[in-house]
Amino acid sequence: MTDRPLRIATWNVNSLRVRLAHLLRWLAERSPDAVCLQETKLTDEQFPVAEIAAAGYRSVYSGQKTYNGVAILLREERCGPEEDIVRELPGLEDPQRRLLALTVEGTRIVCGYFPNGQSVDSEKYQYKLRWLAALSAWLQGELARHPRLALLGDYNIAPADEDVHDPALWKDQVLCSVPEREAFARLLGAGLEDAFRLFPQPERSYTWWDYRNLAFRRKMGLRIDHILLTHALARSCTGCTIDVGMRRLEQPSDHAPVVAELALPS
DNA sequence: ATGGCATGACAATCATGA
Q1: Is the distance between the Cβ of A213 and the closest atom of strand B smaller than 7 Å?
Q2: pLDDT, tens digit (0-9, with 9 covering 90-100), for A155-213
Q3: Beta strands in A107-253 (DSSP E)
């Protein structure tokens, strides 16, 4: 049996307009097959379809002005046609563009830009919990229909203390609060596995570092960007890494990409 | 110290991020 590995990835680019050169360089270096992007901050009319096509990728996107915006890039050489595109989270009245899903190569790819929540006593935190509830409800049906499903994105949740540079400082704060971690645990309970934790990893592995206070150099980060896989996909996963190098570039995104390799039977 | 830095809309500051 010949396996054709499928490399899937997620990256919060914090403005695709500003980060396009970084993205094109990273696509050439890593040649991921399916890339979930968050915080594109572009309307659909503004999406750089031509530049990304020149790099060998099709673009599917759901954007808005100024904030949010998600996209999935598919490598032409590896990916057949995409199907069953969903551009917003069903079951939630929400103008914010934070969810995009499609099926390609027999695999359901779900890209999410989970709400930040701002602080646990804010209205935005309540919105975050509502969004998480709607995601779980919608995923039930998706998981029933798609044994091979991957949920990739900026979750804005650090699932455990080992994902936090200073757990005492962040205890019960937004991104680390108990209700948020319970929502993450519900996703695992629904049949998903954290691809990053399937393998031994370096200590202090994070995906986001504040722009301020030299946080990256001081390893003051959080692991909030994740790739969750159904059990069927987890069995085929041969590795999951964080491309920390992208955070070292000039004018970087504050997030680094996460990449998982799947040895899918063809 | 409610800031530090970055982005976008807008035209001097303000909303948002995490």
Answers
A1: yes
A2: 999 999 999 999 999 999 999 999 999 999 999 999 999 999 999 999 999 999 999 99
A3: 107-113, 149-154, 192-194, 208-209, 221-222, 225-230, 237-242
> Looking at residue A147, what is its pLDDT?
98
CA atoms within 13 A on the CB side of A74: 21
d(CA A262, CA A201): 18
Q: For residue A95, what are its two tokens? A: 């103008």
Residues 103-122 of A with CB under 7 A from strand B: 115-116, 118
Quickly give A210 CA vs B3 C1' distance in Å.
13
pTM strictly above 0.85: yes
Provide the CA A211 to C1' B14 distance, Å, integer: 19
A156 touches strand B (CB under 7 A): yes
- Positive or negative: CA dihedral A28, A34, A40, A44: positive
CA distances from A115 to A75, A76, A126, A154, A220 (A): 28, 31, 10, 9, 21
Establish whether A154 is a catalytic residue: yes
Residue with smallest Cα–C1' gap to B3: A212
A218 touches strand B (CB under 7 A): no
Beta strand pairing call for A149-154 and A258-265: unpaired
